[in-house]
Design goal:
The protein is of the alpha+beta class. Helices cover 32% and strands 24% of the residues. Strands 2-3-4-1-5 form a five-stranded parallel sheet, with helices on one face. Strand 28 and strand 29 form a beta hairpin. The relative contact order is 0.05.
């Protein structure tokens, strides 16, 4: 590579030198250090394009370079490369428009449609109304704007798109309605839509409509429209090869350039017959033009940008990769604002919006910067105050955006309806009658989070929530009455059943269904009803309801009976009471008995943590450790007025840690050291609360409540959705395993038990695996391997440590019978896998040395050990026969994880490679790349989890996709496990959440389970127990049996249904004690 080829080439040469100076570590090793794919790091040093800043810093860090120095180098290179491109562009006219459509001003570069323009112009002159129909991407808009309108001059034409509220201009000789399908996708009022169409039909001047072919059938719903265009509809198909050549070559010729014949032939071959190929072709040509040298556009430059198939995705991905994680998340929400989800299987469409809808107005909002970046990349267009995707082809050509739109299809539908409702509410002067209620409000709260909403939308939902809270107590009472009515009504019908068993089972199912609707309003009753339903009839449905009740975090709900608007409320210092105060009276409510304790005159609130003196715009004053008086240390932050509000600023009870909430994160100071120690990713925090001993802290933001241990604040022990509730006070009790928070007049109590663990390890496990029978667990750390009992978590004697002259990276695997452990150091220059007999505690064998090492897996009843490749240069899978010592290597098969089918001789890697054995050779099929993989014990199913939290179910032969399980929460899937009968699937995520699924019904079983060990590394479902190995907590076990769930419920609520309650809900059945204590 010649550094004289430009700044990017020179930068790549320097990166290669840095790697050589570091001893030329394999890219597999660099990837493990940098947490980027090996292929991404290798691409950074090719010189084809400038790597993104995060990739550059990861590369430099993996080679031990100075990141600050290389950040400056990268910024200098970026500036030089842009200046080089800008100078070249300034001297030339741009002959291609990319994804953007042609306008009348671009007519000099519009080629390939002359015959169609002539035919269309003739039809417009002969008919009052003409309809142009064609698929997305065939060039309808460009045909009208750069072809038809100039051809009809001097006839005046008015071009418009319908938008949300379509209307005709006052007077126009010719009206051209582009993207007519918007009357169906954006206009939601049928009456408004019908009036617009009728106005078009009755217009005095000429009318030309262009509509996407898949919406032509919707036009038939308007007979007058179809009648008007019956003889004047023109179809726009793909360009012929000759027309494509004109569209490729002539714009370049107009700009004084030539196109290589080989390039023209390649593009014509790739685009011919593809109706949606024109915008992709235009974008690929634009990117090729940006990289041309001299007067020729070359095939080599075209291939470098990814061609027709990859140019749009490459441009988009480069923009995405150049952003911080927070900016990437903001980009996703911004772009999805520009998408209208399809109905009934239809494809999504563009949605033009006002610029104000895309921006939050917050000072730190990256929205304006992202809009400018998107516009500069020609991915979106800005016309005055309107922002739109440059073309609908972007929705199919950019896989990431396509996946976002598909994943969020239902959320987008809910969001679009909310936006319209919020606009209507504002237009009607914020009329309370226009607010959301009932199901619409629940859907909005279920699918939308505050950070994805605009200020008007947040105000609309806040007002809707206010109306809901006013009736919350009434709703709770009505819910109980509705339960009684439902039960009573069902009993009338049940009395006609002769079979007593059927009667019991039917009633038990109905009560179980009812119990699952009550956790948010009456969690205690929900638990007791589910227990009673199971006691009445032990059925799959009642067991599922009981398991759900035992795992639900909701413990209790109490609403202050005093609903007057001037009432002030707070939790007591011990968290056991709600203090409700007015100007004349104070009531202290016991939150366990729901009875008043004290009535009297107003008193001061309880005092908790050491006092802080906070004045907006001035340094914070903290208690001096020696005197206890307020003082201002040199490092003290300067809070804003918002941060001085109670709850946003907290000092731990021991005075060692200070937390301050900002709009985007929570800042942390070590008071003794006088330094800022951390920044927590917790946006929109309104309330911070420490436990009494200062060991734990909770933060409540707009969307979720998080719990952390004070001595390892970067790890989140619990994430609890808040469903839009705004928290006004917060209290945590680790010993009782409870969290209480105040929202409006209501106190919610959560019982989260083991979340408050004090066994968190700072040392992080790098991988973990249970034996197939769940009896053994192996965890790897960088320099050692740890063995544990898979049922109790007890640590067992492990194998000898390997010597590590360089940093280690241990890989390990357990044999199918759980008797043998294979382990080795993947960073070793010569990799050797060692076999360890767990029973005899001795080494039984070692694999021949090899140049690469990586993830391990046993196959063929433990007779073969599979070793995945360790570097990009040696992408291979090695098979070692532990009996004969024979070694075979299969190129092109590798991955960071290997799953071996229990039957059929197949294996799959997380990279998506499939192989059969024996002998080991590549095969086809499978789900493609995955984050985590698991076969069911009987080999009937494969589960494949991705980075978005989704899990695809496949048949065990890897031929059919049986369905996809949606994410329980955000975060990548990191571990999967089937139950022995494959009836249940456990899905673990990087956020520590585990969700159980019914594999037959594709339904969640119970609520998401929060485990406190960080990312889930391994899972085991054996019998009625779930075992979890976490990154920071080696072992946790959860009892999933019905008896265990019943015991948990009785322990939590203290008692089952009393005889009066039993008579209410089970009037036709004799009373049964449901908790053991009541039976004695």
């Amino acid at each position: 590579m010649d550094p004289m080829d430009g700044p990017v080439a020179a930068f790549a040469v320097e990166l290669r030198k840095l790697r050589e100076q570091a001893g030329t570590p394999p890219y597999r090793v660099m990837a493990a250090r940098a947490h980027f794919a090996a292929s991404t790091l290798a691409q950074a040093a090719t010189g084809e394009r400038l790597p993104t800043l995060p990739v550059t810093l990861a590369y430099v860090g993996a080679c031990g370079g100075d990141e600050r120095e290389w950040r400056a180098r990268w910024e200098e290179t970026l500036a030089a490369d842009r200046e080089r491109g800008a100078v070249a562009a300034a001297c030339e006219r741009v002959p291609y428009l990319g994804l953007a459509g042609f306008e009348e001003a671009d007519r000099d570069y519009f080629f390939g449609r002359s015959a169609l323009v002539e035919r269309l112009a003739g039809m417009v002159k002969a008919h009052r109304m003409v309809m142009v129909v064609g698929p997305s991407g065939c060039g309808k808009s460009s045909l009208l704007r750069a072809g038809l309108v100039p051809a009809l001059r001097p006839r005046a034409a008015r071009v418009l798109t319908p938008g949300v509220h379509p209307a005709l201009p006052a007077a126009a000789e010719l009206v051209v309605v582009d993207q007519f399908e918007e009357v169906f996708t954006l206009c939601e009022d049928p009456a408004e839509r019908g009036a617009f169409i009728d106005a078009l039909v009755a217009a005095g001047g000429g009318v030309v409509l262009s509509v996407r072919a898949d919406f032509f059938g919707r036009c038939a719903d308007h007979p007058r429209l179809i009648e008007a265009v019956e003889d004047s509809t023109i179809l726009v198909g793909p360009m012929s090869p000759a027309e494509l050549r004109q569209a490729i070559v002539k714009p370049a010729a107009t700009a004084g350039l030539i196109v290589q014949r080989e390039l023209t032939a390649r593009i014509v071959e790739e685009v011919t017959g593809q109706p949606g190929g024109l915008p992709l072709m235009s974008h690929a040509l634009l990117e090729t033009w940006k990289r041309h040298h001299g007067k020729a556009l070359t095939l080599a430059a075209y291939e470098a940008v990814g061609g027709i198939a990859g140019a749009v995705a490459r441009t988009s991905e480069e923009l995405h990769a150049d952003l911080t994680p927070a900016q990437q998340d903001r980009l996703r929400h911004l772009l999805l604002r520009l998408v209208m989800p399809g109905e009934a299987g239809a494809q999504p469409t563009r949605r033009p919006v006002r610029r104000s809808e895309l921006l939050t107005g917050d000072p730190g909002d990256p929205g304006p910067l992202l809009l400018e970046r998107l516009t500069a990349a020609r991915l979106v267009t800005q016309d005055g105050d309107t922002v739109n995707l440059a073309h609908e082809a972007l929705l199919t050509a950019w896989p990431r955006l396509r996946a976002w739109a598909e994943e969020d299809r239902e959320r987008l539908r809910v969001h679009r309806r909310l936006t319209e409702a919020a606009d209507t509410w504002e237009e009607h002067g914020r009329d309370p009658g226009a607010l959301y209620r009932g199901l619409r409000l629940e859907l909005a709260r279920e699918h939308l989070t505050a950070r994805t909403l605009t200020p008007p939308e947040r105000a609309f939902l806040a007002a809707s929530d206010g109306e809901r809270r006013k009736g919350r107590r009434r709703t709770a009472v009505l819910a109980v009455l509705a339960v009684v009515l439902l039960v009573t009504t069902s009993l009338i019908w049940q009395r006609s059943l002769v079979n007593g068993r059927q009667k019991r089972e039917l009633h038990a199912r109905r009560v179980a269904d009812t119990a699952e609707t009550l956790p948010l309003t009456n969690p205690s009753l929900a638990m007791r009803l589910s227990l009673a339903a199971w006691k009445l009839a032990d059925l799959p449905e009642t067991r599922a309801a009981l398991r759900t009740a035992s795992l639900q975090p909701q413990q209790d709900v109490f609403a202050d009976p005093d609903t007057s608007p001037d009432t002030r409320r707070s939790l007591s210092a011990d968290g056991r009471s709600l203090i409700s105060a007015t100007a004349t009276r104070v009531t202290r409510w016991d939150l366990r008995t729901h009875q008043p304790q004290v009535n009297g005159a107003p008193v001061q609130s309880d005092v908790g943590a050491p006092p802080l003196v906070c004045s907006p715009g001035e340094p914070l004053r903290l208690p001096d450790p020696a005197t206890g008086r307020p003082a201002t240390p040199r490092w003290a932050p300067t809070p804003t007025a918002e941060q001085c509000r109670e709850g946003r600023l907290r000092l731990s009870p021991d005075g060692r840690v200070l937390l301050m909430a900002t709009p985007a994160l929570v800042r942390v100071w070590d008071v003794a050291a006088g330094t800022e120690a951390a920044a927590l990713n917790a946006p929109g925090v309104r309330e911070i609360g420490f436990s009494a001993d200062g060991a734990f802290v909770a933060t409540a933001g707009e969307d979720e409540l998080q719990v952390r241990a004070t001595n390892h604040l970067q790890g989140v022990l619990l994430r609890q959705p808040l469903h839009g509730d705004l928290v006004d006070d917060l209290w945590i009790d680790p010993d009782a395993g409870e969290i209480r928070y105040l929202t409006g007049p209501t106190v919610q109590t959560l019982r989260v038990g083991s979340v408050f663990t004090r066994d968190w390890r700072e040392e992080r496990a790098t991988s973990a695996a249970f034996s197939p029978d769940g009896k053994r667990l192996v965890l790897t750390y960088r320099d050692r391997v740890e063995l544990r009992d898979g049922r109790t978590g007890e640590e067992l004697p492990g194998p000898p440590r390997l010597s590590c002259p360089t940093p280690c990276w241990m890989e390990a695997a357990l044999s199918p019978d759980g008797r043998t452990l294979a382990y080795g150091d993947a960073y070793a220059a010569s990799f050797t896998a060692t076999l360890w007999d767990l029973a005899d505690r001795r080494i039984t064998g070692q694999s021949p040395p090899s140049r690469h090492g990586g993830p391990l897996a046993f196959a063929q009843r433990g007779e073969l050990l599979l070793i995945s490749g360790a570097s990009v240069a040696e992408e291979a899978l090695t098979s070692w026969d532990t009996r004969t010592g024979a070694v075979t290597t299969t190129p092109g098969v590798t991955g960071s994880g290997i799953a071996v089918a229990p039957r059929g001789g197949r294996l799959l890697t997380t990279r998506g490679d499939v192989a059969s054995l024996p002998p080991l050779r590549r095969a086809g099929g499978g789900p493609g790349p995955a984050q985590a993989l698991a076969f069911s014990p009987d080999g009937r199913f494969l589960a494949a989890g991705d980075t978005r939290g989704r899990t695809a179910l496949w048949d065990g032969d890897l031929r059919s996709n049986l369905g996809t399980l949606p994410p329980a929460v955000s975060g990548a899937v990191t571990a999967l496990a089937f139950s022995p009968d494959a009836g249940l699937l456990a899905v673990g995520t990087e956020t520590g959440i585990v969700q159980l699924w019914d594999t037959a019904g594709r339904r969640p079983v119970g609520p998401p389970l929060a485990t406190p060990g960080g990312a889930v590394l391994a899972l085991s479902l054996s019998g009625d127990a779930l075992s979890v190995a976490g990154k920071h907590l080696p072992f946790q076990r959860y009892d999933l049996s019905a008896a265990g769930a019943a015991s948990t419920v009785c322990r939590r609520v203290g008692h089952g249904l009393g005889q009066e309650e039993w008579a209410t809900y089970f009037p036709d059945f004799s009373y049964q004690p449901t908790c053991e204590a009541e039976d004695r």
